[in-house]
Q: What sequence folds into this?
């Protein structure tokens, strides 16, 4: 495959230009239709400003699928325009907080501007990389992520970092692309396929195995929609897991 | 950046906690400020309310140094001279 730095630059560039194009994008009914298909409700989308909905993308709705509780500290890895952060912020309430982490400066600025618009007091956006999460160990109750981990060139490090920052008993709520087959090194070297959330994806067995290797338990990969509409070789899934509680008897 | 984020922020490289905070401009949130890891001497800007905690290879040295020069009167000497990954001297 291409050098991981090359792929990472391509991913960063591709999402930077998406953020830059946000001003020109309009939030038409097609965009809402797509998001409803992902699991968002049109009612909740209507409560968000157009500048949030217009950039929303992913492959599922982690906030709809996650067991986010009032008072939770939630980390969204690859928060983009912030749609999942804002939806989660309502679930955690004033005593909780939601942190959006993204490595694209334009995305974080856009999301922060949306936070000001929404007057969201329990929301924070940070510029950072999911392979090097800038949070203290055991500081987070729920990690969510929407179609982002498949873009990482070092998923093992991402999973180690997720395990580190979660509190014992902390939960994963991840929407991501999962591969139906193993992609060849040649396919993986194509930055455009990688950036479209295809060839960076790993198979269900590899995904769950990597999570279990770093210590997660009760790992489930649940298919969200039937593949087959495209021949891309991936399907959208919801991945859950738990960091075991410390005092549990072995 | 809200001050209460300091409760959980750590250095993305060596995971040291807590980071040192220097505030240069504050409204409802910290608008401009500096985060420093006392363990590895890395510094991270808070600019336009956003804390920038990227690993070294994703940072833009020119932009970061321009920011550092802009606030050099307020930045601790140690960061100016030997801060990582870039310093003014």
A:
């Amino acid at each position: 495959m291409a050098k991981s730095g090359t792929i990472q630059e391509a991913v960063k560039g591709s999402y930077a230009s998406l953020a830059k194009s946000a001003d020109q994008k309009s939030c038409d009914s097609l965009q809402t239709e797509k998001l409803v298909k992902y699991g968002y409700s049109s009612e909740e989308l209507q409560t968000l400003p157009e500048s949030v909905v217009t950039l929303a993308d992913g492959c599922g709705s982690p906030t709809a699928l996650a067991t986010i509780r009032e008072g939770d500290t939630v980390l969204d890895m690859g928060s983009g325009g912030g749609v999942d952060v804002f939806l989660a912020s309502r679930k955690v309430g004033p005593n909780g907080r939601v942190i959006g982490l993204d490595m694209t400066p334009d995305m974080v600025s856009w999301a922060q501007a949306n936070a000001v618009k929404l007057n969201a007091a329990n929301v924070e956006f940070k510029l950072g990389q999911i392979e090097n999460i800038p949070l203290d160990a055991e500081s987070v109750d729920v990690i969510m992520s929407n179609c982002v981990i498949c873009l990482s060139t070092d998923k093992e490090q991402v999973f180690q970092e997720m395990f580190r920052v979660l509190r014992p008993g902390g939960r994963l709520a991840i929407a991501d692309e999962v591969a139906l087959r193993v992609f060849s090194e040649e396919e993986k070297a194509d930055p455009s396929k990688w950036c479209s959330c295809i060839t960076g994806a790993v198979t269900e067995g590899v995904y769950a195995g990597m999570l279990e290797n770093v210590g997660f338990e009760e790992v489930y990969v649940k298919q969200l929609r039937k593949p087959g509409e495209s021949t891309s070789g991936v399907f959208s899934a919801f991945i859950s897991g738990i960091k075991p509680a410390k005092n549990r008897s072995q | 950046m809200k001050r209460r984020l300091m409760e959980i922020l750590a250095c993305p490289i060596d995971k040291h906690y807590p980071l040192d905070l220097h505030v240069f401009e504050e409204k409802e949130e910290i608008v401009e400020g500096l985060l420093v890891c006392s363990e590895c001497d890395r510094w991270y800007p808070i600019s336009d309310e956003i804390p920038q905690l990227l690993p070294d290879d994703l940072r833009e040295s020119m932009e970061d140094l321009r920011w550092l020069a802009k606030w050099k009167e307020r930045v601790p000497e140690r960061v100016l001279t030997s801060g990582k990954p870039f310093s003014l001297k």
User: Anything to note?
Assistant: The interface with chain B takes residues 5, 8, 12, 73, 97, 99, 103, 105, 108-109, 112, 124-129, 131-137, 139-140, 164 of chain A (CB under 8 Å). Strands of chain A lie at 73-77, 97-102, 123-128, 140-146, 166-179, 217-223, 234-242. The two ends of chain A are 41 Å apart (CA to CA).
